């Protein structure tokens, strides 16, 4: 895996039309971004099509990267997640029942993964822990699995407006904690 | 750090936007605001940045090898059919009518101009196509011909054009764009040599342009300089 500076340089090179840099960027990041698409879509064929769209966008939007203030991996993950969720929301009906999908997160990170977790990650986890357990769980499910208010209300068996209030309050608390 | 009370609605809204919890109409409303509201844009960027570490939990999955070849073929091979499908993809999406679209728009214009051919061109475009400015550098005259093809300055504000030279740390101002659709900007010889491989960007500035010599408002559009 390339260092973050390399990825940034690759994006800059891609913005100048450098095809070799595009190839390197794909090699360095496609497995992560494919994982993100799969996590949201839970469908391999759809995740492949989405990843394809993501890299077409990367090629076309790389020139905007330097102006937007995102770190390189955040920018790429945001592109992939947005594309996957747009596709998910555009489905006429859910392809799978969310409760039938095995919850990968329940297993928790392995000790090795936990040990290498970034400081940003530690800060986020610390702030999520300040929330009540089901509320931090709801934030994670919304971010990682793109669960909607409707899905979350069903999961916690509370009215939709209640879950909305939970989330909005949690977001304010998170913002307060993360900018402390 | 304390955030004011009426600010808190926007904090929650930015978070809901990042988590994709808004319905389609509310999401579009936020997207429209993001083009003009730097405070909301910063809130969204902060949440995206702060939440991104959650993705560390997601296992990497190597996509099938054929996918990369398919992507590169779509981008770089240009048989007629493929090209048309890329255009449909660009024009059909909500994406930037970016560099590629700019080239299409400009091609016929270049042909009906009697002026010397440009040495370099750039399409400086907003991500959502709300601002599109075509630039053509004529080496013989040292002038940059500017043509605004979409969008304009906000009321009481101006658009300022910047060059971010390849490898440069900071943008250099090329001047404020006049309110009319077209302009000619004289590029100092020292800067003309740095255009190639650089990036042009347009920022939102107070009347008269940035008071600091660096962009002070939002960067609204950007595009690479292409050797013609």
From TrEMBL, chain A:
<dbReference type="InterPro" id="IPR036388">
    <property type="entry name" value="WH-like_DNA-bd_sf"/>
</dbReference>
<feature type="domain" description="RNA polymerase sigma-70 region 2">
    <location>
        <begin position="25"/>
        <end position="92"/>
    </location>
</feature>
<dbReference type="InterPro" id="IPR014284">
    <property type="entry name" value="RNA_pol_sigma-70_dom"/>
</dbReference>
<dbReference type="GO" id="GO:0016987">
    <property type="term" value="F:sigma factor activity"/>
</dbReference>
<dbReference type="GO" id="GO:0006352">
    <property type="term" value="P:DNA-templated transcription initiation"/>
</dbReference>
<protein>
    <submittedName>
        <fullName>Sigma-70 family RNA polymerase sigma factor</fullName>
    </submittedName>
</protein>
<keyword id="KW-0805">Transcription regulation</keyword>
<dbReference type="Pfam" id="PF04542">
    <property type="entry name" value="Sigma70_r2"/>
</dbReference>
<dbReference type="GO" id="GO:0003677">
    <property type="term" value="F:DNA binding"/>
</dbReference>
<dbReference type="InterPro" id="IPR039425">
    <property type="entry name" value="RNA_pol_sigma-70-like"/>
</dbReference>
<dbReference type="InterPro" id="IPR013249">
    <property type="entry name" value="RNA_pol_sigma70_r4_t2"/>
</dbReference>
<dbReference type="InterPro" id="IPR013324">
    <property type="entry name" value="RNA_pol_sigma_r3/r4-like"/>
</dbReference>
<feature type="domain" description="RNA polymerase sigma factor 70 region 4 type 2">
    <location>
        <begin position="122"/>
        <end position="174"/>
    </location>
</feature>
<keyword id="KW-0804">Transcription</keyword>
<keyword id="KW-0731">Sigma factor</keyword>
<dbReference type="Pfam" id="PF08281">
    <property type="entry name" value="Sigma70_r4_2"/>
</dbReference>
<dbReference type="InterPro" id="IPR007627">
    <property type="entry name" value="RNA_pol_sigma70_r2"/>
</dbReference>
<dbReference type="InterPro" id="IPR013325">
    <property type="entry name" value="RNA_pol_sigma_r2"/>
</dbReference>
<comment type="similarity">
    <text>Belongs to the sigma-70 factor family. ECF subfamily.</text>
</comment>
Automatic annotation (TrEMBL), chain B:
<dbReference type="InterPro" id="IPR018764">
    <property type="entry name" value="RskA_C"/>
</dbReference>
<keyword id="KW-0812">Transmembrane</keyword>
<protein>
    <recommendedName>
        <fullName>Regulator of SigK</fullName>
    </recommendedName>
</protein>
<dbReference type="InterPro" id="IPR051474">
    <property type="entry name" value="Anti-sigma-K/W_factor"/>
</dbReference>
<dbReference type="Pfam" id="PF10099">
    <property type="entry name" value="RskA_C"/>
</dbReference>
<keyword id="KW-1133">Transmembrane helix</keyword>
<dbReference type="GO" id="GO:0006417">
    <property type="term" value="P:regulation of translation"/>
</dbReference>
<dbReference type="InterPro" id="IPR041916">
    <property type="entry name" value="Anti_sigma_zinc_sf"/>
</dbReference>
<keyword id="KW-0472">Membrane</keyword>
<feature type="domain" description="Anti-sigma K factor RskA C-terminal">
    <location>
        <begin position="99"/>
        <end position="219"/>
    </location>
</feature>
<feature type="transmembrane region" description="Helical">
    <location>
        <begin position="86"/>
        <end position="107"/>
    </location>
</feature>
<keyword id="KW-1003">Cell membrane</keyword>
<dbReference type="GO" id="GO:0016989">
    <property type="term" value="F:sigma factor antagonist activity"/>
</dbReference>
<dbReference type="GO" id="GO:0005886">
    <property type="term" value="C:plasma membrane"/>
</dbReference>
